[in-house]
């Protein structure tokens, strides 16, 4: 049996069938992988009834019938997995670790494809005898009508360098999910978190990402949050990696540019599908709890550990929690900036 056939016979479990989980799992299925999605009954019903339609910025459209998408609601489906992609919300990391410990074989490679920082630390602390890798999803996936999962921005998956990934690299490449291996992943996670501070701004704007980022009033809000976060990271001795084409230190100044100049200087930042919205916007409109405590809240906690304050990120966290409680209303950029800076 040649290596390729052997690798494809290995099984992948996607633990947490939300937007990212379904997109990654379905893409791997299309590439010929043996995949099982594990998630909630609601998504199971959607996939059984409508299948999964994958689409992206480059015009890719691939439909999988529901009967061709293996889906289980029980974590017992982890038992045969050789690779486990953890895509649950950050608040569910501890529960995921417990389920993996109970059901998965000890040799399974575990990869966290979750937003925020600290998820890998949680998984590793609760599963000290297992191999757990940090990874980062740079692109946005929007769940749309017809059970379409649309990749609305670019970028490649980034993952900690590890020899155990070798059997999986070609398969992920075929699935249009190439794995870019990286050292010093902590810096990468903080670099991504800086960009993810826009999730909350977008959620409260009520606009698509492209429309929101095209307006200086909202960009000033994001610049305020990022500048404050950079101050906290500097005090903590953390140097975030460059994830976008612009380095972290330059981001606040570029975001504050007038609209016309911003569109010329930072055109790549606006290379976003017009349909894209942040995952936090999706969570609020689906009446789900958001990950704000693991994004803006992570900056607040880091500041507190240094006996400092991060007032703009603290206020943004509070605004999102208010929206979770039903106080969801679109904010103008000017009003949001006042709320964050007063």
Spatial order of strands in the largest sheet: 5-2-1-6-7-8-11-12
Quote the beta fraction.
5-15%
CATH class descriptor name of the largest domain: Alpha Beta
Q: Give the low-pLDDT segments.
A: 1-8
Query: How many helical stretches?
Result: 16
**CATH homology superfamily of the largest domain:** NAD(P)-binding Rossmann-like Domain
The average pLDDT value, as a whole number, equals: 93
- Biggest sheet, in brief? 8 strands, mixed
CATH architecture of the largest domain, by name, is 3-Layer(aba) Sandwich
Structural class: alpha/beta
What would the CATH topology of the largest domain be? Answer: Rossmann fold
> What order do the helices and strands follow?
HEHEHEEEEHEHEEEEHEHHHHHHHHHH
Distance between the termini: 66 Å
Rg? 20 Å
Number of strands: 12
Overall domain count:
2
What fraction, in percent, of the residue positions are helical?
40-55%
Shape: globular
In short:
With 342 residues, this protein is of the alpha/beta class. It is built from 16 helices and twelve strands. It is 44% helix and 15% strand.
What does this protein look like?
The chain is of the alpha/beta class. It contains 16 helices and twelve strands. Strands 5-2-1-6-7-8-11-12 form an eight-stranded mixed β-sheet, with helices on both faces. The chain is globular, with a radius of gyration of 20 Å.
């Amino acid at each position: 049996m040649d290596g390729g056939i052997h690798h494809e016979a290995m099984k992948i479990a996607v633990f947490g069938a939300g937007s990212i989980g379904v997109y990654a799992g379905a893409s791997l299925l299309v590439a010929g992988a043996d995949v099982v999605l594990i998630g909630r009954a609601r998504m199971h019903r959607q996939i059984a009834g409508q299948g999964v339609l994958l689409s992206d910025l480059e015009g890719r459209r691939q439909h999988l019938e529901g009967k061709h998408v293996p889906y289980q609601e029980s974590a017992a489906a982890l038992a045969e997995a050789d690779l486990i992609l953890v895509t649950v919300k950050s608040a569910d990391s501890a529960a995921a670790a417990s389920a993996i410990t109970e059901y998965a074989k000890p040799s399974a490679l575990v990869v966290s494809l979750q937003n925020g920082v600290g998820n890998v630390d949680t998984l590793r602390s609760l599963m000290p005898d297992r191999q757990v890798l940090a990874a980062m999803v740079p692109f946005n996936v929007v769940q749309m009508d017809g059970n379409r999962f649309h990749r609305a921005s670019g970028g490649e998956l980034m993952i900690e360098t590890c020899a155990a990934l070798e059997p999986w690299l070609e398969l992920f490449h075929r699935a249009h999910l190439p794995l870019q291996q990286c050292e010093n992943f902590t810096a990468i996670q903080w670099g991504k978190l800086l960009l993810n501070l826009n999730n909350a701004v977008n959620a409260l704007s009520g606009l698509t990402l492209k429309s929101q980022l095209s307006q200086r009033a909202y960009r000033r809000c994001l610049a305020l949050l990022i500048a404050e976060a950079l101050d906290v990271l500097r005090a903590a001795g953390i140097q975030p990696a460059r994830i976008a084409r612009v380095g972290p230190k330059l981001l606040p100044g570029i975001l504050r540019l007038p609209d016309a100049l911003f569109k010329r200087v930072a055109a790549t930042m606006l290379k976003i599908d017009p349909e894209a919205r942040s995952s936090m916007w999706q969570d609020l409109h689906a009446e789900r709890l958001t990950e704000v405590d693991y994004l803006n809240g992570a900056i607040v906690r880091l500041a507190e550990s240094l006996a400092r304050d991060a007032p703009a990120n603290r206020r943004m966290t509070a605004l999102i929690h208010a929206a979770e409680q039903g106080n969801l209303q679109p904010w103008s950029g000017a009003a949001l900036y006042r709320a964050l800076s007063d």
